[in-house]
Amino acid sequence: MEFMTAKQAAELWGISDRRVALLCEQGRIEGVKKAGATWLLPPDAVKPADARIKSGKYIKKAAKENQK
After folding, report:
1. Fewest CB within 10 A of the end CB: N or C in the chain?
2. Residues 14-45: tens digit of each pLDDT
3. Which domain holds residue 18?
4. What 8-state DSSP symbol labels residue 53?
5. SS3 assignment for 10-52
6. Total domains in the fold of the chain
7. What pLDDT does 68 receive?
8. Distances from the Cα of 20 to the Cαs of 3, 4, 8, 45, in angstroms?
């Protein structure tokens, strides 16, 4: 089976390779394996959604408006 590295996934997804490694460590990407210090991702791996924004709106902006 062929894999892609965290660096290759980072270029494909437009994020840093460190961010891809963190997503792998957190278990947010399925099918990853670690070979030494390198994370290996399946070629059909999907970039996980951003978990910081749940409602589709920016929370800080809404909180400031509610304080007024």
Report:
1. C
2. 999 999 999 999 999 999 999 999 999 999 99
3. 4-67
4. -
5. HHHHCCCHHHHHHHHHCCCCCCCEEECCEEEECCCCCCCCCCC
6. 1
7. 57
8. 14, 12, 10, 11
